[in-house]
Structure formats: structure tokens, C-alpha cells
């Protein structure tokens, strides 16, 4: 059983205790149990977010480009940063799953660091697919480290 499921079961068990009149729980105990239930639900939501961030299903199910598109979309929705994805020669995408995971992780970390430290207002992620090499560029208009170029052999 997954952690999130166990947390939800625990939260529901606490909720049952709160609803069961036979226990005649003191007001303070009821308040505390309600706080515990809410904390469990929040931990469950955090665990779900963490799980999704570590290995989003979109990466396994749809591949690298939709997964990076999702990262860019999330950045646009969760911050004031204007993010965009530029794709060149996408039809030549011949990356295997392992290399795709590496590029996803690199993009994820670069965007996270950029959000936290660079004070950028704009970021562009470019993926260029060629027969033998996939090139990724991440550019932002913020301060600090500038990620120039990463070349990954497709096979």
C-alpha cells in the first residue's frame, strides 16, 4: 500500500473517532484529533506532490517533450516568470527513456534553481533534436549562473 493511501486511511480513522458519539470525546481532545486529521491530509497532499515531482507519470506515459512542456506550464502557473518551450526538429527525437529522464531532471533542477535564485522574469527552454545529438539550452534573464548548452547523444 502506498504512503498516500495509508495517510488517507489514518485520516479517515481519526474522522470516525470524531464522529462516533459513543466515545464522548472531550472538546479539547476532539479539537486535537481534528488538527491531527487535517495534518495527515496535508502530509498526504505534500507526499503526492513530491511523488509527482520525482517521477511524473507524463514522463513515462507521453515522453520527454510533454513532460518538459508540463514543467514550463507549471512554472508559468506558479510564478510571475514568463516561461516558454522552443522545439526544433522534434520529429528527430530518438532519445531513449534513460536519456529522456536525465534531460527531464536537468531541466527540473535548472528551473527550480532559476526560480529560487536568479530573480528572472523570463526563461526559455530549447530542445533541438538532430539525428545523433539532442541539444538542450536553458536561458533566463536573471542573475547568476547561465546554463549555456547541453548535448546528449541520442543512442
Q: Can you offer a commentary on this structure?
A:
The chain has 155 residues and is α+β, with helices and mostly antiparallel strands. The chain has two domains: 3-54; 57-153, Heat Shock Protein 90, CATH 3.30.565.10. It has five helices and four strands; from the N terminus they run ααααβαβββ. It has helices at 3-19, 27-54, 57-62, 64-78, 97-118; strands at residues 82-88, 122-129, 133-140, 150-153. Strands 1-2-3-4 form a four-stranded mixed β-sheet, with helices on one face. Helix 1 packs antiparallel against helix 2 (27-54) and helix 4 (64-78) packs parallel to helix 5 (97-118). The longest helix is centred in the N-terminal third of the chain and has 28 residues, at 27-54. The chain is elongated. It starts with a helix and ends with a strand. The mean pLDDT is 81.
